[in-house]
Amino acid sequence: MNNNIVLTCIAFLLCNMLSAQAPQVDFLGQLSYGNSDLSDVWGYESCGQEYALVGVNDGFSIVDVTDPTNPTELHFVNGPNTIWRDVKTWNDYAYVVNESGNSNGLLIVDLSGLPGNIQTYTWSTGQYNGSNINLSDAHNIFIDENGIAYICGADDGLFYLDLNVSPINPPVVGQYTDAYVHDLFVRGDTMWNAEIGQGRVRVLDIADKDNEILLGQITTPHNAAHNVWLSDDNQFMFTTDETSGGCIAAFDVSDPSDMFLVDTYFSSVSNGAIPHNTFVFGNYLVNSYYTDGVTVVDITNPYNMMQVDFYDTSPSSGNGFDGCWGVYPYLPSGNILATDQYEGLFVLGDPNGNSGGGGTVSVDLKIMLEGSYAGGNAMNTFLTNVLPLQHPYNAAPYNYTGSESLTTIPSNMVDWVLVEARSGNPSTTGVRTTTTVETKAGILLSNGKIVATDGVSPIDFTTLTSGSDYYYCVRHRNHMDVLTNDPQCASGNVSYDFTNAVAKAFGSNQMKLSIDGKAMMYSGDYDVDGDVQNLDFDLWSLTPAVLNTYDFADGNLDGIIQVTDFDTWYFNRSKVSIVEIEF
User: Fold this and answer.
1) H or E segment at 464?
2) For the chain: N or C, fewer Cβ within 10 A?
3) Counting beta carbons within 10 angstroms of the beta carbon of residue 125, is it exposed (0 to 12), middle (13 to 18) or buried (19 or more)?
4) Greatest CA span in the chain, whole angstroms?
5) Distance from C-alpha of 347 to C-alpha of 115, rounded to nearest angstrom
6) CB half-sphere exposure, 374, CA atoms < 13 A
7) Model pLDDT for residues 112-162, shown as the tens digit of each residue
8) What pTM was estimated for this model as a whole?
9) CA 554 – CA 536 distance, rounded (Å)
């Protein structure tokens, strides 16, 4: 292992794109940085505009790649000189670390003003369990789908920052000091550490970040575990061994306590080349492979990985740490970004404009149901034993024909919900003026997140027009439906939190405020007509004292129809919805 080589750390991309065909890596455009050396690259998208976020030896570069044939640098943030600079994003912020020996901490860049102005901040110190956590240098950063940033290779080991509390001044919420962590991957409550010095990957349960639990560990084939990434179904792990003649390895990790190797892959471009980072893109791996550039590997069968494409960014060949350092395959357009240390930024894709992205919009919504709200920004999960495996919205008045289903009910699932993407401008009076463009069923978790049936990813909409505005309607079988108050631009990732304020729902007071200040959907709409009124009481009165049931009249979602459901209805009676969310 070469300790002077930076390791890129990939974050879970809230756009969980599954590609039916291999991503193409033909040349589209290039931006030279002259004598400056490049390191990591990441991507950012806002309302149809795509950007490359590039680590440069003397700073941080933001490049407009919306026209892939003409990448144009918009901003450059000067920084200490280093060949290691890593960047990740969360919402509209970029987080940049470096290992210069002269660092002033974590660079935070507010990207919301692009393509115009940007704002920069620095995070350098925090408290954890009564001790100071100081950040001078760090080798890498990873940000999970819940907004927790993991700072790797820092003076104080690996520590975690909660970006939800503050994107520019996040608190430290955890620390891992058992070994040097070069790179990692986190999904849900499980952390996969690439501990390159020990040549292994360790798997830890971090549900309690004060008390990580070791689930298993495994040595990689060449004892140089550099980066790690999981398949979308969490059944297979892929690692890179950053050493001469090292490989990309596939492991069966369906049981973390009994992981085993199933296949290894070596680039077919030249002998002895060194893999750097691997990224799962649906049924493919997209890899930065130093002197061999970018390679694409089919992992439809992880027991038999097959290289299907490559683009060589580097004039160098064979053994060596020159060439392609970083690669980013998750832009909505389907184009791929790659940074070659000496040749600059490359934009790769299909020259005919069919790169395979573009139509997918990942919609990350958060909502609370009054009936199950338990306080503390969480909901009860009393229905897990009676929830159906198939979504319940195939009958009137929903008549949704989608096939979303589960094989098992997640322990943190509250209920099924329906999400509609609407075009047009909503009205509070008269007739409905928006049109439903696409509908998806999702599962509502106890923390309020609406996710796809994998239990983790935001819901993907595939027929929306990139760059256009849409409103999103959330429907539930016995709560009053809500519509986003503001239009959301269809881009790679839409994020909207209904729980912040009652005004986040379109119309006047269409949500209810909890005692602890969370906005919730009104309960009691038992007959699913959009209002809470006497007809809902009539429906409840027909089915009292029913146990272990999944029923419309169960207003507090505890699986029992009883007087508490009457109480839920009674306090909300005469609540009338806006015409816009009615059927």
Assistant:
1) none
2) C
3) exposed
4) 78
5) 19
6) 12
7) 999 999 999 999 999 999 899 989 889 999 999 889 999 998 877 899 999
8) 0.77
9) 11
Write down the residue that tokens 């999970």 correspond to.
144
Enter the tokens of residue 200: 């292994």
Please give the DSSP secondary-structure letter assigned to residue 256. Answer: G
Q: What percentage of the chain reaches a pLDDT higher than 90?
A: 73
Map 552-577 to HEC letters.
CCCCCCCCCECHHHHHHHHHHCCECC
Query: Hey, what are 53's tokens?
Result: 């976020």
Give the model's pLDDT for residue 98: 93
CA–CA distance, 417 with 400 (Å, rounded to integer): 11
Residue type, 485: N
| C-alpha triplet 50, 52, 56: angle, nearest 5° | 165
H, E, C per residue of 107-133:
EEEECCCCCCCCEEEEECEEEECCEEE
Hunting for tokens 């891992």 — which residue is that? Answer: 176
Write out the H or E segment, with its range, that includes residue 541: helix 534-541
Buried (b) or exposed (e) across 310-320, using 16+ Cβ within 10 A? bbbbbebbbee
Q: What is the pLDDT of residues 304-338, one digit of tens each?
A: 999 999 999 999 988 889 999 999 999 988 899 99
pLDDT (0 to 100) of residue 16? 36
